[in-house]
Amino acid sequence: MQHASLQISKKRKQVALWVYPEGRVLGALFVSHHTKRARREEEPLDVLNHPAPFVVVRCHLPDEIRFYNKAAIVRIEYAEEDPAALAPPASLPCQLHLMDGSLIVASIRQHRPPARSRLYDGLNVADERFVKVHLEGGTICLINKSYIVAGVGFTEQA
């Protein structure tokens, strides 16, 4: 028997996960309608960088709820809802080589002081397990830093 008082109102965010050793999984993450620190909708990055070791995913095939260990999630991709409204002014092009042989060509868009705006700085944020990168075509990719073998950062040409 389910009790409505035990349910927390959340929104489903459609994602594709790459989980070790399972492979690609289609499903939805559950995000809150607002975050504790800001009056904005929670993002998948907030969920993945939360200290809890597991994340809840509603899988499509088979239709079931699974609890994935974040350490086993290689990456997650999803469509960016409003690229123009969310994009910071600076973008750092990069290539990330993953343990599974994947090469991710993307850009990192973060508000950081100029002295801390290198790819190295973005990858070394200690309290964040996942890094957010932007792929071509408005897709966001959240990559588990534990699966990154090497990163190559490029400076944009004016």
Characterize the structure shown.
- By secondary structure, this protein is mostly beta strands.
- It has 2 domains: about 5-80, no CATH class; about 85-155, SH3 type barrels (Roll), CATH 2.30.30.
- About 10% of the residues lie in helices and about 45% in strands.
- The chain is built from 3 helices and 10 strands; from the N terminus they run ββαβββαββαβββ.
- The protein has helices spanning about 45-50, 85, 120-125; strands spanning about 10-20, 25-30, 55-60, 65-70, 75-80, 90-100, 105-110, 130-135, 140-145, 150-155.
- Strands 4-3-2-1-5-9-8 form a 7-stranded antiparallel β-sheet.
- A hairpin with a 3-residue loop joins strand 1 (about 10-20) and strand 2.
- The longest helix has 6 residues, at about 45-50.
- It is globular and about 45 Å long.
